[in-house]
Amino acid sequence: xxxxxxxxxxxxxxxxxxxxxxxxxxxxxxxxxxxxxxxxxxxxxxxxxxxxxxxxxxxxxxxxxxxxxxxxxxxxxxxxxxxxxxxxxxxxxxxxxxxxxxxxxxxxxxxxxxxxxxxxxxxxxxxxxxxxxxxxxxxxxxx
Length: 143
Hints:
Blueprint: E1 4-11, E2 17-20, E3 28-31, H1 34-54, E4 69-73, H2 76-91, H3 95-102, H4 106-112, H5 121-130
Antiparallel strand pairs: 1-2, 1-4, 2-3
Helix pairs in contact: 1-2, 2-5, 3-4
C-alpha cells in the first residue's frame, strides 16, 4: 500500500495554512507557511493512522487526488511501522509465533507491533520480509 493521502491546504488570514485530510478526518494541523504546513501534515497523518491501529480500526484507503489537493506521504518510519502492523494482522499468526519467526523475544516482538513504539528501519524491513512484503522507496519532487 502507498501511504500517501490527499490533503487540502486552507490559507489562513495570518498567512499560514490549515491542513485537513478528506480520508483521515482525525488528521488536522497547521503551519506558518506551505513548507511548514506540509511537514506538519506528514506528522499529523502518521499520528492519526497509528491511532487507527491502536484502536483496532482499519486504515482508510486514500482517495484519488482531486484538483486543489496535495499528496502528503506518511513519514518513512511511520509508513513501515504501519505496514508491519497491517501485515501482522492480515497474517493471522500469534505474537509469539511472530517473535519465533523473527528470532526475537516475545517482548521485543510486542514492541515491534506497538504503533507508538519506535523501531529501527532494519527491524521493520525484516518483519515485512517475514510477511512476504518488499519495501520500495520512491523519491518525488516536493510540491
